[in-house]
Amino acid sequence: MISMFLSFSKTHSPERSRRRKTNTRPRVEGLEDRALMASLASLSAATATIAATPVAFNGALYFSATDAVNGTELWKSDGTSAGTQILKDIYPGSKSSYPSNLTVVGSKLFFSATDPVAGTELWATDGTSAGTQMVKDLYPGVIGSYPDQLTPMNGVLYYVAYDPKGGYELIRSDGTAAGTAMVKDINPGTAASSIRNLTAVGSTLYFSATNGVNGAELWKSDGTAAGTVMVKDANPGSGSSNPGVFAALGSTLFYSAYTPASGYELWKSDGTAAGTVQVADITPGATSSMPAELTAFGSYIYFSANDGVNGVELWRTNGVTTTLFADIRPGALGSTPQNLTVAGSNLFFTANDGVHGAELWRTDGTTAGTFLVSDIYPGAISSNVQNLQAVGSKVYFSACAPNFGTELWSSDGTSAGTSLVIDMNPGAGSSKPRDMVVMQGALYFVADDATTTNRLRKLVTG
């Protein structure tokens, strides 16, 4: 069932907010220790980088960073300058191990890294240098298995990697060499099964894969070979439905999939063939509505889609009723909602109503509670709100305002409660806050200032 819910015109926009700095005068601290700061100061901005988004684990932040002595390696920070240091030089010397895909599973932090003997393989750490070890040389020799899409489920890590017997397939690991092995050779032999979108929903791991016969379709796994099966051949035969944009609402998976009759539309699955169905043909016929930005909020999945009449707008579904929730920009152009982020009782997102440019919006799931939060860059120019990060009921983000460049902002969902947090690169220069993460209630992020680039920062509001 498809229905219309809410449309907007100019009169729905609240008055523009006052753009101001916060009264508490927060400050930002750099977290690199003195050795790293000295090393970075001697390098160009292109090489002085935080190379991966920090991950919180056991009361500390872990991230890959580059210095002139050790290359790009795994670092650790307890939130203080003195407590920020390299954890282990996995590839000794100035060459780099390039840690990536940092993923917490129980008492271990897993990641992909390269050493001179085994190539790129799965590693894990307990937070100590001695406890940072390669889990298994899955592809023996210097080439490596190249672990990717690391995903936790029920205390076990699942990922995609190259196995010399099965090609690129689904791998399971409990953190030990003996407990790390291919789950199933989905596409028999060394041909890849092209696994994408690993998503855990309860005790079921969903993903897109091909077995070499049916094309790219929806699969599931319980971690056993027998329990790893194709859920449904939605585009029968060798054609592909190309499942993507996965999101869970309770025990149900929602996603986008293609069929020749309907194009790319919204689907759902309970893990059975009978329970895997198209939710709605939003753009009737073979034309696609291209569902994107799927985000669970309350009892609904909110998403962007194009019904062919209203352009790309904000929709929602509970799996039974699918609604055009907000026609923010009336007409065929659409407001293109993006960056959907839940914070407290609000869903924040960016949208362009055709009057104010792309700015910060919010909804509480009601008509009255859906509106433009603040026109940060007044008029039709967009403030380019990005990198939304929820901290309690507030959202922090980067945005560009006149005279300030792209800096750190925050919002509680009201016009009065939306403000510039700090002008780190004074004047029209930009600090470009990004890679935000929350640890123990504090916000950490990567940003630039007038003299340094790509440094890890901590927001101090006291």
Describe, in plain words, how this protein is organized in 3D.
By secondary structure, this protein is mainly beta. The protein is built from 1 helix and 37 strands. The protein has one helix spanning 34-41; strands spanning 2-4, 27-30, 55-57, 60-67, 71-77, 84-88, 100-105, 108-115, 119-125, 132-136, 148-153, 156-163, 167-173, 180-184, 196-201, 204-209, 217-221, 229-232, 244-249, 252-259, 263-269, 277-280, 292-297, 300-306, 312-317, 322-326, 338-343, 346-352, 358-363, 371-374, 386-391, 394-401, 405-411, 418-422, 434-439, 442-447, 455-460. Residues 1-11 have a biased composition (Polar residues). It comes from Paludisphaera borealis.
Summarize the structure.
Residues 1-26 are annotated as: Disordered. The protein has one helix at residues 34-41; strands at residues 2-4, 27-30, 55-57, 60-67, 71-77, 84-88, 100-105, 108-115, 119-125, 132-136, 148-153, 156-163, 167-173, 180-184, 196-201, 204-209, 217-221, 229-232, 244-249, 252-259, 263-269, 277-280, 292-297, 300-306, 312-317, 322-326, 338-343, 346-352, 358-363, 371-374, 386-391, 394-401, 405-411, 418-422, 434-439, 442-447, 455-460.
